[in-house]
Each structure stands twice: as structure tokens, then as C-alpha cells.
Amino acid sequence: MSLIRVREVSKVYSMGDVEVAALKGISLDVLNGEFTAIMGSSGSGKSTLMNIIGCLDRPTSGSYLLDDDDVAGMNEVELASIRNRKIGFVFQTFNLLSRYTARENVELPLIYAGFRNASERALKALKEVGLAHRATHKPTQLSGGERQRVAIARALVCAPPVILADEPTGNLDTKTGDEIMALFEALNERGTTIIIVTHEHEIAQWCRRVIQIRDGAILSDKLKGEA
Amino acid sequence: MLLWRAVKIAFRGIGANKMRSFLTMLGIIIGVGAIISMLSIGEGAKKQVSQSIQRFGTNLLRVSPGSARVGHVHRGTVTTLTMEDGEAIRRGVSGINLVGSSVQNMAQVKYANKNTSTAINGTTPEYSELNNFPVETGRFIDGKDLKLIRKVAVLGTTVKEELFGGGIAVGKQIKVKGANFQVIGVLKSKGATSWRDPDNQVVIPLTTSQKRLFSQNHVENIYIQVESIDRIEEVKQSVEKLLRIRHRIQPGADADFSIRDYTEFISALKETGQTFTVLLGGVAAVSLLVGGIGVMNIMLVSVTERTREIGVRMAVGARRRDIMLQFLIEALVITVTGGIIGIILGASMAYGIAEFGNWETVITPFSILLAFFFSIFVGMLFGIYPARKASLLDPIVALRYE
Fold it and tell me: DSSP letters along B194-226, please?
């Protein structure tokens, strides 16, 4: 069963009179439990694709089913709810709120989801990424790797079926990057679907499936071990 | 999202930039403080007005000779109003408590080697109560004094001081216009008003004044105390009707007397007080409005600064209205906190003005509520635009914002 089913999705940006097609009719399926990398150089359309998969943006045409829900036809409130419950975001620049402690940052999605025991659940998520002892620290008191772990805890705290990571190791050194990738691998082994957008082959190596994008279209889609 | 959580988040946002938040709040504090203190001054003025109205006696009518028409004859020449008119009013008009008449003349008053020129007020016993003028020592003139045309006098404190200094006056003989009068009492001092000293007079029986001193038959004033304020108009009309008949004035012709009540005067005074309050409050409201613009300014800066935060919140599931609520509550927390501090400040200022400025101030619950809700209104008004701006951000753009 496909968790993500993208069909003939196009995205056209109009800049004044000029129309730029970022995506040109992409079709894609991601199954439950997959560990996938989307690769491409900048301007290839991979970010646009990720925004659409992440329900931050809507396609100009085509259909997108996430967990059997037709996202293309949803309004803003429904999209916010989908982002809240079904998707966890991890960003290159971590995007933690500097005024909040690690635990409070992790609580954020729970607050919008309306959970009562947010604090408890947030601690549990921090424990999962091995940062329970840093719960009361603010982002500025944490190292880059720790910050990204907090961000991952925030992404998984609502137990979404899919985690989307945009260049998650881009701001980290190789060793810390590997630790983060190992964390993603562990999460994937426990059943979470993970999609990583990257332009680094070393990172893509961790994934079982690698999709190459160029000029708004899929160039190649290979499973690990295939030539 | 729960409301208290939103409030908590708002307090955090404010706490993160304490100096800036305080300065923003200061605009509101000054605005609300100004409203509270200005209104308290206005209310104090109103209270003073109503106190002086109380002193006047609002249910008093005064009949005086001569038409009330502007540019008409000199009052002194009309001598048709008499003590008998007063008697007729007392007997013939219902709804009246007291009627008193008086006439004033200037004359020399002598005691031993001291003398002074003063107003000789020939009047009836009701004068004391009608004009709120009780005696300090001795007694006031009574009906018997009038009937027997006695030569007795009640002195105002100014006259008493002139003639007797610190000594005792009651029981002494004085000369009024050459005639011997016995002092029977001294009036309680009223204190000089701006243009007239009511203590500078000698009160004698009206009949004595008319028959023994000045050979007149007319009076200058007939005072009528009406039972209650709602009957003033009715009594005024009855008196007018009665006097027109007594003075044989043809219907349609001008009367040779006029009846004045104080309601016009009082409403003018009240209106002045009201205008004063509105004006002061208005000026203060403008300063609160300026404070509100300050809030909007800072909120707009805050939205721009926190674009990324807004993007993150949206990415993790905040709806547009959650974002809107967050910023709106932040603006409200600033204005309401400022409002409360402003109320305290304004109240202390009002207290200070009363204490050191010798100016009566009154803080009403209304002005506190007004200032409080006005500050909420300002927060809403100037918070809604930045909040809306925040909520309409595109999450993709917001997340990339540097």
C-alpha cells in the first residue's frame, strides 16, 4: 500500500509575465516503511516536490494522496492538521525556537494538536533521540548535532507516518551527520517512513531507495543494490 | 490551542525583549494614566458644581420687580412688588414650603465712636432658612418683631467686626440711620464670594425698614421655596398668574416683575462640567491612540523578526488562526498590562493632584472601566493588522526567511 501517491504533479510559478515550471508532471509512489532519498542539484525541483509532499504547498495540477487522503483539494485548516499529524519536518538549519527550551520546542506540535500531557510526551521523544538530559537547555546551549536531534524529536513527537528531512546534515560535520543518519535509520527500522532530500551521495548511501530529479522530472529511481 | 497557553506564549514573547516591551507599554501606560487622571479632574469639577448647586438650593424661585427682558427699565424704579404679594403667594399657591421677602438699602451704622456704611436688609423671618443663613449667637428676627415693627438688628460678621471687634454685640444698642436699634443676634459667617460679601449686612424686620427707616412700601425680592424640584414649573406658573391678576396686567402685556429659577443656571454649570470632562478625556484618549500606534509599530517589527518562527509553527501544524491569535494576544497582553499599570498610575496622579494641587479629583468606577476597555480596544485595533499579516505568511517563504 502506497503511503504517498503522487500522480502527474506539476507546479508552475508565475514571476510577472514569465511562467516557470518547477515540476513537470511527476508521478511517484512511496510505500509505508521506505527509507528514501530524493537527490538533485539546486533548481532541480526537489525542494518544490518536498514542499508538496510536506503539504506546505499545493500542486498546480495533478493529484496527491497522502495516506489515502486527497491533499490537492484540501483547504488551509485541513492542510495544517495533516502537517501536524501525518508529517514530521526536519530542516537543514534546525529551525528551533531560540527562546524555548528543548522540551518546549518538542512540545510545539503537541500544543497545536491539543494534547494535554504534552510535557510528558515531549520528554519521551527527547529520550528516543538520546537527549533527555538536555530537556531544559535552550538551543544556544546545544551543539549542532544536539539541535538536530531536538528537531528530530519534534518531528516524531506526534508519531507521524512520514518524516521529511531537508538536507538534515547540511550544517553538520561528517561524524555528527553520520550519527543523525543512524538515528533516522533506527527510526525507519521501527516503521516510520523517511524521505531525505539531499545533494550528497554519502548521505543518499544510507537510504534503500534513491530518486534523482533534474529539471522538474524524475531522472532515475533506484533501489539499493540495483546497478 | 488553549487560550491560557496563548497568553503564556505571549508573555514569553514580551519577556524576550523586556526593554522594548516596556517602552511600547509606556505609551499605553501614559495614555491610560492620562485618561484616568484627566477624567478624575473633570469629575471633581462636576462634583464641586453639584455641591454649589446644593448650597444654592435648587428648588428656589425668586420674584423680582421689573421685566426680565434685556435692555428694559432700571429695576430700582419699579416699586409695584410688595410684602402683600408675598403673603398672597403663601396663601394662594400650593406646593410651597416657605415664602420670604426682602428689600435692601444702604445706610450708616454706628456704635460708640465707630461707624460703617453697610446694606440694611429688611426682611422676614424666612430669610434665614431660605438663604441658608443661620445665626451664630443670639436669635434671628421673628414674626413678632415684624408685627410690632421692632427696632432690632441681626449683624453680619463683617459689620460686627467693624463695630465691636472681638467684643460682645448681642444686647448692645447701635444706631442705624440715626435710630436706635438693639442687636439681637450675629449671623454665621458665609465668607465672601468673588464679587460680594454677604457678611457685610445688617438684617432688620421688613416692616421696620419700610415704615421707620426708608418710608417705602415695595420689596426687591420675594423668595419662594418649592416643595420639590418637579413642581418648580407648576409653581412658577401659578405665581405668575396670581401676580398678574394682583398687578392688573392685561393678558399679552409685559409683566412688571420677573420670576427666575436656578435650573437654567444649574444646567449651564453642569454642561460646562460635562464639556470640561469630555475635553480632558478626549485629549487623553488621543495620547492613548498614539500609544496604540506604538504597539502596532512594535508588533509589525516583531512579526518581521519572527517570520521564521511563524514558518516553523505553521510547519508543525499551526493554523492561520493560531498564528493570528498568538500575535493578537501578544498585543493585548501589552495593552492590558499597560492599561492596568496606567490605571494605578492615573489613580496615584489623581490622588497627588488632590493632595498637593488643592484641586478636587474623583475617580469613578466608570472611568476605570472606560480606560480599561479602551486599552483592550486599542490593543485589538492596532494588534489585528500585524496579527493578520503574520497569519497570511506563506510557510515556505517564512521558513526560508533570513
Answer: SS--TTSEEEEEHHHIIIIIS---B-SEEEEEE
